[in-house]
Amino acid sequence: MKTLRLALIFSLSFFYSLASYSQGVKPGDIAPNFALKNIDGKIVSLGDYKNAKGVILIFTCNHCPYSIAYEDRIIALDKKFKPLGWPLVAINPNDPSVQPLDSFEKMQERAAEKGFTFPYLFDEGQKIFPQYGASRTPHVFLLQNIEGKFVVRYIGAIDNNYEDETRADRKYVEEAIVTLEAGQTPSTSFTKAIGCSIKVKK
Q1: Following DSSP, what letter does each residue of 5-18 receive, concatenated?
Q2: Extents of the domains making up the chain
Q3: Tens digit of pLDDT per residue, the chain (202 long)?
Q4: Most buried of the four, 93, 128, 163, 197, by CB within 10 Å?
Q5: For residue 146, what are the β-bridge partners?
Q6: How far apart are CA 176 and CA 55, in angstroms?
Q7: 125 — alpha (psi -120 to 50), left (phi > 0) or beta?
Q8: Which CATH class is domain 25-197?
């Protein structure tokens, strides 16, 4: 009986732990601030981008096949929109004790191999991704800077075909930025993120 009770308590605590990760921001909310270590050892925060129009925030990682499939597109997004005032910031939310390929050292290696043109931050202690409600890698949160406050304008996938970029007929992030640049609110503010589950230490 005692064993059964302990198992039930563990199951419930695990369920509520997972449920807490599904909570987070929604379009129109103010984005939580962060201050995380970049691959160069420096701390990067959302406040560092107070002069930008916005930030393309993407939770991604090294090992996930979906993240790997999107790496070149992520680099292209930064190169295209950073000069327009929309820099990209990537955050690795995975616990390396669960997935060693997502360690800080492996992040440095991967960024060097691919020539990342943007900060690649480590969510040490996994404190930031639950605040946003990220659940997959990759998972996009497009933030617009309005008088120093970053407002969430789009959440979800980069486009609608992770397997083949040439067959993607909806490029959600690009569409949202173009709409915001025109002074309007994106009509598509939420899509389902397609990717690997975030690896959480039990």
Answers
A1: HHHHHHHHHHHHHH
A2: 25-197
A3: 433 343 333 333 333 333 333 589 999 999 999 999 999 999 999 999 999 999 999 999 999 999 999 999 999 999 999 999 999 999 999 999 999 999 999 999 999 999 999 999 999 999 999 999 999 999 999 999 999 999 999 999 999 999 999 999 999 999 999 999 999 999 999 999 999 999 998 8
A4: 93
A5: 149
A6: 12
A7: left
A8: alpha beta
